[in-house]
Design goal:
With 614 residues, the protein is α+β, with helices and mostly antiparallel strands. It contains ten helices and 30 strands.
């Protein structure tokens, strides 16, 4: 017993050490985006591990006076949930700074060491406003609060025109056809964001687009001399498919910004005399034009539109094969560019070789510079006649964007030796006897084929098909099939006349169809349309499944009908989902909440179907 306790203690300690060792170290800085001259603010450096002693090196804090700090706070906690142990350490170093003058200034990175490994924070931008600007804002707010103006209208005026911006940033504006462009749709904000409601992604007419996974943010960036929190909404790789001037249509996004204003009702013991409003702003990117240049004249015949920088390698499966045997030539094209559009190079083989369908394999990773990886092409073929043959070089041409010219890659001439086919000795002797080789006979359209070799297999027809046993078997089978079809069609017509039965059968299908429409609205962030379609799906399913008229379709009737079928718990689940939909229909909701309601609705109908079948 004692041994077990000691062993358990040792295992627990090992688990703690493993959990501590596996935690990834992060070192970050928290600072306000906007500050005012003469008003102090806090800058906090956070570390999730215990640092080495005296290893913290603060930034110089140029253009700021250090009022207080550094003050250090630290703590740790261990949690064991479901047998899994997690440990968290918090170590914070805080400074209180006072801006010296107005402008946009940077706080340089700070460094610290953990187990002799150095970590540093990101460079952080802070916009410092003059005292006059802050005073004017306060005075304006005070004067407005004294008037009969509502707090909501004051909240709307608090957000300036450039506090929320939507931009589509392109890596290039002048490219060649097929040259990749990196496009990032960004939201710049100087106010807290509560969420987004509707969006319209840009239409990339004339481009082949592919979305890339990116880090959403936020990131601290400076735009037009002002500091913003930037969020990456989407990133695309664009490949122009035609020359000339291409226009990228605007993207649209509606966001809700949180604004805190002083309440007209005076001091509130709960909210402290302030009210929080969600101010909606419809944002739109300007049209973006891209100039696409055509390729220079004089392109080689092996050029099919490949752009970038590539290398080509080859591999022949065997240089010596027997006649009537298979072989394979493998061509691999690697590099960076529009790899997705590279087609198989042309392979010319001797006339006695039979080439089959080309197989391709690829491994492509999308990056900011374009597609990176390789495409591999396998050319399988069969050699027919013995001898020594030469496979002509395989050429691949691409347009080099750096050199602004065509570059042709080619394999060397490949020699292949075809030896006699020992397994076809008998057939070869017969062919030699008549003075004809198999390789000399070519297929002309579909009228000439190889002569069949070996003993003929002929049979005589004794009796005609009519009135034979097979004939009577076919007639009997057709009679049986006709009877079966008759009864099936009759049953189908009888079932269709039963309106209750038809509605009950189609209830699940109609619910699934409406769930798909609701899922589409959920992806588009159309909250109101999503909840309306969910309610149609749930109420429509209950009315069709249990033949309840629309006028009588209430919660009490649904509970009564399902209770008669022994599905009281399932009825309460679907009524709960309907209630959540009605409550959330006119209240702010996140994407995660819509997803939960969608999944609960599908699960509620599935439970009812299972309960009824039992």
């Amino acid at each position: 017993m004692l041994f077990r306790k000691v062993l358990t203690l040792i295992i627990a300690l090992c688990s703690v050490f493993v959990a501590w060792a596996a935690e990834e170290v992060s070192f970050s800085v928290n600072a306000p985006m906007i500050a005012s001259v003469g008003e102090p603010f806090r800058v906090e450096f956070e570390l999730n591990a215990k640092p080495d002693s005296d290893s913290f090196v603060p930034p110089s804090f140029e253009n700021f006076d250090v009022v207080a700090g550094p003050s250090v706070s630290q703590g740790s906690s261990v949690q064991i949930i479901n047998g899994e142990m997690t440990k968290s350490i918090s170590y914070a170093i805080t400074y209180v700074l006072l801006p010296q003058k107005a402008g946009t200034f940077a706080i340089a990175p700070a460094t610290i060491e953990v187990k002799r490994k150095s970590y540093s924070t990101q460079r952080t931008m802070i916009e410092v406003r003059s005292g006059e600007q802050g005073g004017n804002t306060t005075q304006q707010g005070g004067s407005q609060s004294g008037q009969s103006d509502s707090a909501e209208s004051r909240a709307n005026r608090t957000i300036e025109k450039d506090d929320l911006l939507l931009r589509l940033e392109l890596s290039k504006r002048q490219v060649y056809k097929g040259e990749p462009i990196r496009a990032i749709l960004k939201l710049y904000t100087r106010v807290p964001i509560a969420g987004s409601e509707s969006s319209k992604m840009p239409a990339f007419n004339g481009f082949w687009s592919q979305q890339v996974e990116i880090e959403q943010g936020p990131f601290r960036e400076t735009l037009n001399g002002k500091v913003y929190d930037a969020y990456n909404i989407a990133e695309y790789l664009l490949y122009p498919q035609q020359g000339g001037t291409l226009t990228i249509e605007p993207a649209e996004l509606t966001v809700a910004a949180q604004v805190v204003v002083k309440s007209n009702r005076g001091f509130d013991p709960f909210f402290g005399g302030h009210e929080v409003y969600n101010v909606r702003r419809a944002l739109k990117t300007p049209e973006v034009k891209v100039q696409v240049k055509e390729f220079p004249a004089g392109a080689p015949t092996s050029f099919t539109g490949a752009v970038g920088r590539y290398t080509m390698s080859h591999a022949l499966s065997a240089s010596r094969v027997a006649a009537n045997s298979a072989a394979k030539l493998q061509i691999t094209i690697s590099g960076t560019g529009n790899l997705n559009f590279i087609s198989a190079p042309t392979l010319s083989l001797p006339t006695s070789f039979e080439l089959y369908d080309v197989k391709s394999e690829e491994k492509i990773e999308n990056r900011a510079s374009g597609s990176v990886g390789y495409r591999r092409f396998d050319y399988p073929f069969i050699v027919r006649a013995e001898g020594v043959y030469e496979i002509a070089p395989v050429e691949f041409t691409y347009f080099d964007l750096d050199k602004k010219k065509y570059v042709t890659l080619a394999t060397p001439p490949l020699n292949i030796v075809v030896m006699p086919d020992k397994n076809a000795a008998t057939a070869t002797q017969q062919q030699v006897a008549v003075g004809i080789k198999r390789e000399d006979v070519r297929l002309l359209g579909e009228d000439i084929r190889f002569i069949k070799l070996g003993a003929p297999a002929l049979r005589s027809v004794v009796a005609p098909f009519a009135l034979s046993p097979l004939y009577w078997s076919v007639v009997l089978l057709m009679f049986v099939v006709a009877i079966v079809v008759y009864f099936v069609v009759r049953k189908h017509i009888r079932d269709n006349r039963n309106v209750v039965l038809v509605k009950g059968r189609r209830a699940n299908k109609m619910a699934i169809k409406r769930f798909r429409i609701a899922e589409k609205y959920m992806r588009e962030q159309d909250r109101r349309a999503f909840y309306e379609e969910m309610l149609r799906a749930l109420w429509g399913y209950l009315g069709d499944k249990f033949n309840i008229p629309v006028a009588d379709l209430t919660r009490e009737v649904v509970l009564s009908e399902l209770g008669k079928r022994g599905a009281t718990n399932e009825a309460e689940d679907i009524i709960a989902v309907i209630t959540r939909c009605e409550e959330a229909q006119y209240s702010p909701a996140t994407t995660a909440e819509m997803k939960n309601i969608y999944e609960d609705g599908v699960e509620a109908i599935s439970k009812i179907e299972s309960a009824i079948k039992k």
